[in-house]
Design a protein that fits this description.
single chain; alpha+beta; GMP Synthetase, Chain A, domain 3; 3-stranded mixed beta sheet; two-stranded antiparallel sheet; 3 helices; about 20% strand
């Protein structure tokens, strides 16, 4: 279970964002020891960036059908951050099979299309026998 961390500048208790993401992602992983989570908090901009990387063979399970799993993880992270007065961003990096550069590593974060498509995934083609 994620822990809470006391902020040194105040008596407020801040969520452990990295621990929260680890708690939410690990159940989807075949190799949980491959999970790497990094969290950066900008108090001046009230933003949190959480970056994670894991074994490429677990990508489908973490993202889920139509990106549902990763969208749910982002929603929880954003809700917890919002309750603490921050905006949260989740980026996923590296080690994915079938990458364009051939060695299985990305320099840029992998993003789910579910955010842009409203969480609905890719629309199905319509049958020719049924009008629109």
């Amino acid at each position: 279970m994620p822990e809470f961390v006391t902020q040194p500048s105040s008596n407020m208790i801040a969520p452990d964002y990295a621990g929260l993401v680890r708690f939410l992602v690990e159940p989807f992983l075949e190799t949980p020891e491959s999970l790497r989570v990094d969290c950066e908090v900008s108090r001046s901009k009230a933003k949190i960036w959480v970056r994670l990387a894991f074994d490429g063979s677990d990508k489908g399970r973490v993202f889920g059908r139509g990106g549902r799993n990763i969208q749910a993880i982002r929603t929880v992270l954003e809700g917890v951050a919002r309750s603490a007065g921050y905006a949260a961003h989740l980026d996923i990096y590296g080690g994915f099979p079938n990458s364009r550069d051939g060695d299985g590593h990305h320099d840029a974060p992998e993003r789910s299309n579910s955010r842009r498509s409203g969480g609905r995934g890719t629309p199905r083609p319509r049958s020719r026998n049924h009008p629109a």
